[in-house]
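Q: Give me the 3D complex with NDP.
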Amino acid sequence: MPEPTSDIGLIGLAVMGQNLVLNMADHGFDVAVYNRTTSVMEDFIKEVEAEQPSASRVHGHAELADFVASIKCPRKIVLMVQSTAVASTDRDAVDKVTDQLEPLLQEGDLIIDGGNSNWNATIRREKEYAAKGIRFFGSGVSGGELGARFGPSLMPGGDPEAWESLKPIWEAIAAKVDRETGKPIERFDPSNPVTLEEGEPCTGYIGANGAGHYVKMVHNGIEYIDMQLICEAYFLMKQLIGMQPDEMSQVFARWNEGDLDSFLIEITTDILQQRDPTDPSRFFVDVVLDTAGQKGTGKWTSISALDMGIPANAMAEAVFARCLSAIKDERVAASEVLRGPAEAVDFGDQGEFIENIREALYCSKICAYAQGFQLMREAQNEFDWDLDFGQIAAMFRGGCIIRARFLQKITDAYAEDPKLANLLLNDYFNEAVNKGQAAWRKVVSLAVLNGVAVPAFASALAYFDSYRTATLPQNLLQAQRDYFGAHTYERVDRPRGEKFHVDWPEENRPQLTL
Ligand SMILES: NC(=O)C1=CN([C@@H]2O[C@H](COP(=O)(O)OP(=O)(O)OC[C@H]3O[C@@H](n4cnc5c(N)ncnc54)[C@H](OP(=O)(O)O)[C@@H]3O)[C@@H](O)[C@H]2O)C=CC1
Ligand SMILES: O=C(CO)[C@H](O)[C@H](O)COP(=O)(O)O
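A: Here is the predicted complex, encoded as structure tokens.
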């Protein structure tokens, strides 16, 4: 048996796996690779040999046993395979691969699941595989194809000792941001990758067991709402102003120079100026069918928020917006029957209205991130993690899909107050929303009056208005619950925790103290 030479192994050579392998190889690590379908591995190796300067560091294996034997001990093996398990009893590709690896591994070997696994599955796997002598570690990976290739944001969670052994590789391949400004340092050159000496890596230990995958899931929940908000801004410019995609592209390009500067605005700018590759007389966006897919992370974020009673309504709204988009046939039929407002309401000056949309987008985005961070704050209590929100925001500044200038502001907010209850309470965000709220309200009102659906703008605004309201109408709701179900209520004039009930069927309706 030849001496093991690879520093790390990776299983799962789809888009993310292939690019992570090349990223590790660019940074000088020898990587063993394996894929269930051998031809995929063989094609990849051929392509790497033809095109990549780091080809000599990528080693393909058709047999799992050879793959494992080629990795230096204690072995580190990254899984980048489909992840679908949600309930603790579900077993998916991650379990199938881990089960196959188990008899081939030695004590101290480490499996790192880099897929979008549900955090509950990661908690279950860490325990289950520990009992079999395998160290199982979860790490969120974000950045899509290009991020994986030249610097993703990496969110590792699990055994701290396992993290120490993974850290040199993870820090090397992660995206880097400028240590002073927090701005991403981007270079897309395989022969000259961005190094740790040049900037701060967008990775760091998140917490025990499923913490890394939980944070990645919330990242995706934020990604959902971020994307939906941009879509609503686009839709308003399209439906109310009647702008063409290339005109909107110019607006987004301008926005990208200010507070909204982000990867998602940048790609939107590019998409909107793109012509249909099959018919250049049309814009690409106009030929894409309006039905959104989803793989589950946004839904899991919303379910987790509902489970813990956290008001992440705008994030859930973004998931429902995708669901509504998916019932295309039903919507087309309904559009023949259901009528909107009879008359259009004028939006006034076009330039001013576009500026209002920008402000509405920024204010909504602030609320969306407030909800995401509020959710993580609750999750740390629920799952006994000790999350560092400043560090998480800092990690999101580069590499990942939600990377944005704005994340430096969140990093600063948590540096000022690590225990900040809600981002909206930070001076910068409070002032930003105060400044933008008139425009935000105008945009939502005009959308409603004109029958243009803006579920994310509107629910973010409802969140803001509810969060800043000391007395909500749930006094009446509690009275209703007490009336029909004897569910009891607390009183404004009595200490919290004291419970009362009115004996509603009784003629005098006496109050009972419980
Ligand atoms: N695509 C993206 O932008 C991002 C994806 N992710 C996550 O990263 C992971 C990989 O994503 P992506 O690269 O898109 O690939 P996919 O999610 O499409 O997964 C495809 C890979 O999984 C392997 N696979 C599927 N089922 C099994 C099985 N039962 N046993 C062994 N291998 C199996 C496939 O092997 P085979 O070739 O044999 O079918 C292939 O290598 C996923 O968890 C995804 O959610 C995370 C961030 C971004
Ligand atoms: O994790 C990702 C980005 O961060 C993946 O691209 C994920 O698939 C996005 O979610 P969805 O497919 O549900 O839109």
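A quick observation: The radius of gyration is 26 Å.
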